[in-house]
Amino acid sequence: MTELTPPAVRDHAADGPPGRRRWVGRTIGGIVGVAAIATAAYGSITSAAAGDDIHASMTIIAPAAAGGGWDGVARELQQAQKANGLVNNVQVVNMPGAGGTIALGNVSVLNGQANNLLVGGTGLLAATVQFNSAATLDDVTPLAVMVEEYDVIVVPANSPFQTLDDLVQAWKADPKALPWTGGGSFDQLVVAELALAAGIPPVDMTYISSDGGGEAIQALLNGTAQAAAGGYPDNIDQIESGRLRALALVAEQPLEGVDIPTAIDQGYDMKLTNWRMLAAPSGLSGEQVDSLTQLVLDSTATPEWADARERYHWTERLITGDDLTAFLAEERARIERLYEEMGL
After folding, report:
1. What pLDDT is stored for residue 2 in this prediction?
2. Does residue 163 lie within any of the structural domains?
3. What's the DSSP call for residue 319?
4. Which of 68, 143, 292, 343 has its CA 20 to 30 A from that of 114?
5. What's the number of CA atoms in the CB half-sphere (13 Å) around residue 16?
């Protein structure tokens, strides 16, 4: 895969595979700061988790900085739990770094401390694969997938590509000559999945890394990239304003109220979604796991959570128990395959 980086964030590290170079360029330079944040946050987690009554106190860990998708899930859960008396004292701790694996590593050592919930999802699972992290989801207790968010394939409004097939045919003619962008590692996986569905070797694609959906949109609008994959909530304003043209929604079924055809309906088998989940530390009793799972289900049944789903354009998808175990195994295999196809 040819990977370009805008001059402002170009990675000059020369060693290691492309995925590792990108991670080194963006995280090693700030490792001391990240470690300090993680240490401070870890102290907040352990001190807040005193006692074992999950309805008395809870810490929800967002493995990213404030303002992102994981942070949004954490704070909406906090509001739902507080407003409905599900938990008396709920705090949110932000612990950014390495695609969420720093937070995952810290939670993995909170053995038996049930008063902690870790927000995660497709991106966190992908980060454990991409960075070959020491801690994986096997080192925590997954409780539930709660919602999923869909990506959308977009091009600038003045693009010659009117349909997804127009775009794919041009891409197939010269894969390296049509640069893509996206707001994160999940979006890169979506582009790779489209490449496979179209018969294009993902290793041949040109992908420009962007730091977030806003930067990806700018790369489209200034001509740096010709197409992008990004979260529908991140792109809806630009689509509705007419600055971007949506070619496909990456979802198994059309989204109610959204007039964008799915990639599947256009002949491209794409099913990877940006799902969001909650996990707890390991070493919990069966009774604790059942109680935490019920707390998650009760939280997602509140009016406050329903309002959040509407505002964030999330689709409810509740998966727990044995179904969750099977789902996570399938998703890991899918993501591992995509990274292998990209040569990362």
Report:
1. 61
2. yes
3. E
4. 68
5. 13
In a domain, 251, yes or no: yes
CATH at residue 160: 3.40.190.10
What is d(CA 192, CA 11) in angstroms, rounded to the nearest whole number? 21
| Cα(313)–Cα(261) distance, integer angstroms | 16
Give CA–CA dist 66/33, Å, rounded: 16
**CA 175, CA 136: separation in Å to the nearest integer?**
34
Inter-CA distances, 314 with 8, 73, 223, 298, Å: 33, 10, 30, 17
What is the spatial distance between Cα 69 and Cα 300, in angstroms, rounded to a whole number?
A: 16
| Residue pair 195/261 in contact by the 8 Å Cβ criterion | no
Q: Which residues contact 30 (CB under 8 A, 6 or more apart)?
A: none
Share of the chain above pLDDT 90, in %: 79
Of 221, 224, 56, 255, which is closest to residue 147 (Cα–Cα)? 255
Task: Give the chain's end-to-end CA distance (angstroms, integer).
Answer: 9
Distance CA 124, CA 141 (A): 14
Domain count, the chain: 2
Inter-CA distances, 178 with 40, 69, 188, 227, 341, Å: 44, 28, 14, 8, 18
What CATH code is carried by the domain that includes residue 118?
Answer: 3.40.190.150
Non-local (6+) Cβ contacts of 57 within 8 A are 48, 49, 50, 51, 87, 88, 89, 90, 115
